[in-house]
Structure formats: structure tokens, C-alpha cells
């Protein structure tokens, strides 16, 4: 299926620079796996970043550079020796993207009628706010807004809202300006990988459902 929704320039630039936090970086990694257009865009951002570094005078490394680098490596190069979730893939009902091979994925839990979630833990970043969401075909999700940014990659099925239709491979970035009421496509259940940036709080019904469950 054709990919129509991509990460913003700002997000890709931050991913290239290693300053995107672990949760959103995982969502972007999954998108990059399936999107040659964005792999090409990322290559250009990395070239620009490299050229800027070459021009800069030597400076002491930021104190957390090592941690951030390790965080990215943990996502980019999952250890081949550790694949705890292969067994669970059939239980999840879809094939995990390579970028998620080293993630710990919890069981599906009830979130609302026709709506389930599963906690995703990223190796080395236990506090990252990442989850899989699964909505039943045809489900109308409660309207909600955001404070902070939410990243969502469609893995299977489809989702539509006022801004368009999202199919597998599409990545949606929703920020403060987006107040939406998503509807799951009637053809199949929809599973997506969602990450919240930093201090994101969800408003409305979805937020009230999620907050006590996942501590966001
Ligand atoms: Zn893309």
C-alpha cells in the first residue's frame, strides 16, 4: 500500500542528530524500515549534520551523549542473541517490525469496548512511553486532543480521521493543534505503535482511560 504520511522534517532531523527520545525514535525506526522515501530524506539530514560537525571547533562532548548514543544503538542494532518475543508474534496477530525485535511486549489488555493496548518496553529505556494499540474493525474512538506530541505508526488495518486515512506504513504526528476522532477501517482490526513524547498528557476520554492504566 502507498505510504502517504511521513515524519516531519523536524522529527527526521532530530532522529538524525540522536536527540529524539527513545519512544518516538522507535516509531520513526519502524517507519524507516518500510519507507524508502524517508530513508533517502534521513541520509540527507545525516550528511548535513556530518558537514556541520566537520566545520565545528572541537568541543567537549555533552554529558549525556553517550547515553543517547547507546539508546539509539539499542534501537538500531538489536542483539541477535536476544529475541524474547518471537514466540509471542503469533499471539499478537502480526509480524513484528525488525526495529522492535529487542522490545519487550506485554499481553493485550482491555482498554474499552473493542479497544486494547499492550505495553512496549525498549531495552535500555524503561521509562519510554510506548504502546501497541488495537481497535476493532469499524470502532469509533473517543475524540481526544494532545498536549505534547504523539507519534503513531500503523502496523495493520487502517484508521481515518478528519485529516485523512492512515494505512500500514503511515506515520502520524499529532501535536497540540490536533483534536481528532479516529475511526478504525471496516475491513480489519487496526494495530498501531504509539509513542508519547516527554510530558505528553492525553485529554478527554482516551486520556482518562489510559492514564491510570499506563501511568501517563
Ligand atoms: Zn516516510
From TrEMBL:
Domain of life, per UniProt, equals: Bacteria
The ChrR-like cupin domain, residue ranges: 102-195
A Pfam family of this chain: Cupin_7
InterPro entries from the UniProt entry: Anti-sigma_ChrR, Anti_sigma_zinc_sf, ChrR-like_cupin_dom, RmlC-like_jellyroll, RmlC_Cupin_sf
**Annotated NCBIfam families:** anti_sig_ChrR
What is the protein name given in its UniProt record? ChrR-like anti-ECFsigma factor
* Species this protein is from: Chelatococcus asaccharovorans
Taxonomic classification, please?
A: Bacteria, Pseudomonadati, Pseudomonadota, Alphaproteobacteria, Hyphomicrobiales
Amino acid at each position: 500500500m502507498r505510504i502517504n504520511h511521513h515524519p516531519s522534517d523536524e522529527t527526521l532531523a532530530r532522529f538524525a542528530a540522536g536527540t529524539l527520545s527513545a519512544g518516538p525514535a522507535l516509531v520513526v525506526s519502524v517507519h524507516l524500515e518500510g519507507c524508502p522515501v524517508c530513508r533517502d530524506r534521513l541520509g540527507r539530514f545525516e550528511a548535513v549534520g556530518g558537514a556541520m560537525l566537520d566545520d565545528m571547533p572541537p568541543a567537549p562532548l555533552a554529558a549525556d551523549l553517550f547515553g543517547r548514543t547507546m539508546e539509539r544503538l539499542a534501537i538500531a542494532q538489536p542483539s541477535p542473541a536476544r529475541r524474547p518475543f518471537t514466540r509471542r508474534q503469533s499471539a499478537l496477530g502480526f509480524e513484528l517490525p525488525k526495529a522492535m525485535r529487542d522490545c519487550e511486549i506485554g499481553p493485550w489488555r482491555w482498554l474499552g469496548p473493542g479497544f486494547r493496548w499492550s505495553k512496549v518496553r525498549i531495552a535500555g529505556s524503561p521509562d519510554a512511553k510506548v504502546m501497541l494499540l488495537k481497535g476493532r474493525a469499524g470502532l469509533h474512538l473517543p475524540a481526544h486532543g494532545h498536549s505534547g506530541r504523539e507519534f503513531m505508526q500503523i502496523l495493520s488495518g487502517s484508521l481515518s480521521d478528519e485529516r485523512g486515512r492512515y494505512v500500514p506504513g503511515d506515520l502520524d504526528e499529532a501535536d497540540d493543534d490536533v483534536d481528532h476522532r479516529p475511526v478504525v477501517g471496516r475491513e480489519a482490526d487496526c494495530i498501531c505503535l504509539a509513542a508519547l513524547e516527554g510530558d505528553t498528557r492525553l485529554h478527554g476520554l482516551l486520556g482518562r482511560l489510559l492514564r491510570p492504566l499506563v501511568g501517563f
